[in-house]
Write a structure and sequence with these properties.
Blueprint: H1 3-13
């Protein structure tokens, strides 16, 4: 399950917060 780690990085880069 390494694909999930990439998602977290993308979300952190995205202005979702």
């Amino acid at each position: 399950g390494s694909k999930t780690q990439r998602w977290r990085v993308i979300i952190r880069n995205l202005p979702f917060k």
